[in-house]
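Aim 2 progress. For OsmC family peroxiredoxin, the working sequence is reproduced below.
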Amino acid sequence: MTHQISTKWLGGMAFEATNPGGNFRIDADIEIGGTNNGLRPKALMLDALAGCTGIDVASLLPKMKVAVDSFHIDVEGDLTEEHPKYYHAVRVVYHFYGNDLEKEKLQKIVNLSVEKYCGVMEMFRKFAEVDVKIEYHPKV
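Predicted structure tokens for this construct:
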């Protein structure tokens, strides 16, 4: 399978990126000549990681008959000091909300994504140390 995208320069530091799911704008910070009016390329990589593993988790919840009220994923990455700057350490935190959360099943779901299904996670592991954590939040 091959994926293809197209990215068109809009002038300055701005680009319009196409994706099978829609278009979006990429731009740089004002400090380096952008207009601060678009998504940042490196942060998009973190979004891709969260989206990939999130889709895995969302697809596995019903298959494993696990109920949660909601969940979200926080991803934080540390860039190298020298150019080319890339993420050398990444932290992924899964937050599950609900009463009577089945922690063992949720751990298994996250492990399946992290270790087997999420291709973006595997790509990140090629260049960064990836730390994964799960937090459970009962309803109050």
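The longest strand covers residues 87-97. This observation will guide construct design in the next reporting period.
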